[in-house]
Design brief:
It is a single chain. With 412 residues, the protein is α/β, with parallel strands linked by helices. The protein has three domains: 146 residues, 3-Layer(aba) Sandwich (Cobalt-precorrin-4 Transmethylase, domain 1); 90 residues, Rossmann fold; 129 residues, Cobalt-precorrin-4 Transmethylase, domain 1, CATH 3.40.1010.20. Helices cover 43% and strands 18% of the residues. Helix 7 runs parallel beside helix 8, helix 9 packs parallel to helix 11 and helix 13 packs parallel to helix 14. The longest helix has 19 residues. The chain is globular. The termini are far apart. 43% of the residues are buried. The N terminus is likely disordered. Iron/sulfur cluster binds next to helix 4, helix 7 and helix 13.
Length: 412
Amino acid sequence: MCLRGKDWMDTKAFKRSLNSSDHYHRKGFGHDAEVADAMQSEYQSNLVQEIRDNNYVLKRGAVTIRLAEAFGFCWGVERAVAMAYETRQQFPTEKIWITNEIIHNPSVNERLRDMNVQFIEVVNGQKDFSGVAGGDVVILPAFGASVQEMQFLSDRGCTIVDTTCPWVSKVWNTVEKHKKGDHTSIIHGKYNHEETIATSSFAGKYLIVLNLDQAQYVADYILNGGDRDEFLAKFKKAYSEGFDPDVDLDRIGIANQTTMLKGETEQIGKLFERTMMRKYGTHNLNEHFLSFNTICDATQERQDAMFDLVKEKLDLMVVIGGYNSSNTTHLQEIAIERNIPSFHIDSDQRIKAGNRIEHKPLHRDLEVVENWLPEGELVIGITSGASTPDKVVEAVLEKIFALKAASPALQG
Ligand code: SF4
């Protein structure tokens, strides 16, 4: 069932009616204390806390670990997971679904499966809602869901528990403002990322740009015109139905996927501000250009901490997080730009006996690297994405310590 089609619904009116419905919940259900205990024991780590308390450094044997000063679970993710746990308590016998991974972390999603929360399956590239019945409870994940999905679930008579992070909702409000002013939303993001799919569903006209290169292409087109067919081919799947670059780029607003590199989002915003100023003059800028700060604090803090960490002398980096987690990939990018050997793994299981690691190089498929831990004294930088529990970080650290300790050759 394709629920992505743009049907120009009044998204604001729909959200208003949803907010007033008894079957729509955006807050927990008062089971915070029990849930906090469960989350503490399942996701927190004493070892990681010890490193935090020790100025983010730990030396064991020949290995020194330097932890980024901001990493791991952000409050939006913690809140979403806690709400999912509370939902199970609140509806002990109902069938509970989730429209997507609650967050991009395999261990957390596995835990929800254990609690008998079912994931909507994707069949032939489309979500299959056929098993969802009226009266079922459906959780929307931290990165949100499209307005068409929400409407479908509401019409079917489901109880909706919406864990969408308020930072993501802030971006949705921003694109609503663009729509009101008849501005095309230029969204810095990945067109097939769930958050951007949700954001674009709230927008009127939109165009999604992945990076500064694509933004520059659009800016050049605004100033100098160009080949319309080439433009539309280049941004295939990344614009709203009926979008015409010759007509729809005279009034634009900026929005973003909250987990993109914040420096790039800022540069893209400034590029379009300059572009519209050149084209329409400073006095007319407000009529043609809208920009609000919607970069999430947690993403910003984790990226800033990573920029600080890579200033240290590191032999290598291990970046821990789900492979489809956008914010984790961006942390990996920062290490690679500094030419630091960097390994992106999603769990300790990727570290294998015999000094082998299965990791995901940037923009490539999984790869096994032999002898990834060098001999002798080592300084290893560690960070983790916003969806990664500290327990997973601890398991990775223990594997590294054990590997190094078990091999006399690696001791140097
Ligand atoms: S990374 Fe930011 S936007 Fe995403 S869930 Fe966390 S706090 Fe919310």
